[in-house]
Amino acid sequence: MWRPDGSDLRPWKIGVLISPKVKMEPLRIGFLGGGAMCEAILRGLLDKKVVQSSDVWVSDVAESRLEVMRGLGVNATANGRKVVEKASVILLAVKPDTVPEVLRDVHDLIKQSQLLVSICAGVPLQALEDLVPDGVAVVRVMPNTPCLVGAAGSAYALGKNASLANHANIVEAIFGAVGLTVRVPEKLLDAVTGVSGSGPAYVFMFMEALADGGVCAGLPRDIAKKLAVQTVYGSAKMAMENENMHLAELRNRVESPGGTTIAASRALEANSFRATVIGAVMAAAQRSAEMRTKPSPF
User: Fold this and answer.
1) CATH number at residue 42
2) Is 176 annotated for ligand binding?
3) Is 96 a known ligand-binding residue?
């Protein structure tokens, strides 16, 4: 589990289960798709020594991406079938509309002993399970863009053939290398989209507004941006290091009676700040559900 300072963080008590850790066999991971998210996950795995570079295979259609992968010391090829032949864990990281083609191309090579992990947005477990041989374990994971800096908030859901004792631990070992990982029922992944999937955009927008406010109050723009970003980072770190404290209590500690902060909080409340954020989360979750329930291309 990740903290900003790199130390361990106990599982958050939010109604989801983190599986107990058990000793695993060395992983052989094959990435179908070598884009930015694949690279971020791979860098985390190698940095945390979760896997040896010689035990990683990556396929991609772009030679430029394969060159990046080779630069990391892993096996890179344009042939996805070779990746599947070598891997014990197949990590699917392609564009959602290419999933059927990619999996059909390797269908005859996928074995029941392998685990398929998908980070393809909007592709449900049932659709994935329909594209692999019967009995193959499938897990769906939703990381977010802070994965690129080793600070992801990833949620995963187990398919019907995936086990808590084995497959969940593999997923947590992989995605725990790039941030926080929690397990949820698949029906909650739309809500996850609203909070952590789309959440970085809300935070960036808030930081932008905070910096603009500083400029409006007279600060040079570069200083306003630095202070806004550091304030959000420091506040997040405080929240993580005080996980048993309600967020409102942390806020109240800053709000002195009759002071500047309570005046600012009043202005935010008057303009429906919290209701607006809640509405944004719900809008993203609803849109995620709409995209998921469209007629399946599979």
Assistant:
1) 3.40.50.720
2) no
3) yes
My answer on whether 145 and 250 are in the same domain is: no
Q: Is 37 annotated as a binding residue?
A: yes
The reported pLDDT for the residue numbered 23 is 57
Q: Does the annotation list 69 as a binding residue?
A: no
pLDDT digits (tens, 9 = 90+) for 170-192: 999 999 999 999 999 999 999 99
CATH number for position 221:
1.10.3730.10
pLDDT value at 11 more than 70: no
Annotated binding residue at 36? yes
86-128 tens-digit pLDDT: 999 999 999 999 999 999 999 999 999 999 999 999 999 999 9
Task: Collect all residues with Cβ–Cβ distance below 8 Å to 177 and sequence separation of at least 6.
Answer: 41, 44, 45, 47, 48, 50
Q: Which domain holds residue 116?
A: 29-184
Residues in CB range of 275: below 8 A, 6 or more apart? none
The verdict on whether residue 127 carries a ligand-binding annotation is: no
Q: Flag whether 24 is in a domain.
A: no
Q: How many angstroms separate the CA atoms of 11 and 179, rounded?
A: 12
Residue type, 206: F
Number of folded domains that form the chain: 2
Residue 212 sits in the same domain as residue 174: no
Has residue 83 been placed in a domain?
Answer: yes
AA letter at 27: L
Ligand-binding annotation for 124, yes or no, is no
94 labelled binding-site residue = yes
